[in-house]
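I am hoping you can look over what I have pasted underneath with an eye to the fold:
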Amino acid sequence: MSSVRLRGWPAVLTAAAVTLLPAVVAAPTAHAEDAPALTLVPNHSKVGLPQPAVRGDSSQIGWGMAGEAGGSTAKDVVVKVDVSGISGFADVTGLSCVDDICSWPSRDIAPGESTGGIVDVNAKPGAALGTKGTARLFATSSNATVAETTVELTVGAVDLGIARIPDTKDAAPGSTLAAPITVSNSGSLTADAVTLSLAATPGLGFAQKFSNCTYGKSTDIPSAHGHALDTAVCHLTTPVEPGKAYRLSSEVGIEVDPTALYEFVDYQVEAVSSSVPKAAATDGPVLSLVENGTPPVVRTDHAQWRIDVDNTADIALTGSTANAAPGDETVLTAKVRNNGPATFNLLNSDAQVGVLVEIPKGTTAVKIPSECDVWTGGGMDEHTPGAPEYMCEVESPFTVGETVELPFTVKVEQGAPATASGDIAVTTVWGTKLSADTDKANDTAKFTVKTTTSTATPGSADPSSDVDADGTGAPASDGPAAAATGTPNASGTMASTGSGSTPAIAAAAALALVAGGAITLVVRRRRSRTGGGAAA
């Protein structure tokens, strides 16, 4: 047997080894006195060996293993690979092995600790394509049991790909796009069958259903960041031969919804056995592959087709006016509504809707919405009361007809002007213009505070005098009464933007000294979000 180069057994795993660790199945939690039980997990259960071998690009047998959570430390663990089942057609390169058994150095594995290793394998010159064999991964330990595993190796490899789909820049709402999908094989072995997987963002849909595809929803697409996408998983039983390309037998249509804006289709192809169970019965034709030339130069097995839609979304903003005496607290609420026709679903864009808020002079923001952070003029900073300006994020998706409320509790300082206003405006969270919002007439509003000499209970205001900031005289619902029903709390120091009063944190500290106790600040954040109806 030729020599073997052994990698790994590192305290910190390579990226490849880390990737597989979520698949590790730990045995039931053991008591401290019980012997730990470990499981070896291969990076890939099947490995293809290119023939001829590609210099500098070996195939690999890889594994990972995690210490049993809640168990005891596994002592003197030695992981080994028995290559006798592949030695007739494969070379394992590097350090020498003894009697076809290659091993990694001994080490201890603590509970919850992860480790792994890889070894390079190449097909021997002249080894026949399709030759198969099995390598066995196992381990010894002075106190632990380790479940072994196997890896199947084959001379030759399947190398499937799809021609990359160019981005679509100006799709029309309500239209149907043809997905130009071709599947090819640049490897040396035939793929018995193929799984084609498609996932579409909420503004898109599948125009045609096929009987050999399974349709559903998934939150597992990494680029969707936990959002549910519509999926189609199709099992195509057409063999895909080396050096050939294939088109789909029927056009896969992608419907563009009237609410679509920034969308994408995630697509990937994978070689599978023809014995993979067929999809559940679905009405429609059978989707298959038809030979169509040679593999393209630019190809991938997993990518995105970006679809930007020629659509707009009218984001409307209203402010509020409040009356309050010096020392009083009152609530100013910005209301943001998406009038459509598009939904802001920003899985494929960074144009997130934001509201830039200026606190009126002579008042101090003492409670701020959870969506808002201090605006520095060039970005967002801490979530802290007392700043003169804030940028508020409107979460995606921001659907048609939805209204988001952003209530700010402000305190009127001594010496505040009779009337003070602060500008509020719709932007992106980066402070730039929102290009999809072409109606700019309703993108700005004001917060206004009218200072009174009322001797009313601190924190109260006269709701009968509240008017919308647009000057229409319509009753406002954003005054102290709204605050009493659940204004979001916020944390942080209070700094005044007007004339001085004793900082609240200093007063709290003095109270603590007198009482000889501790003060605990409880932080709760609440977001008011409603849908449908006209904005108040």
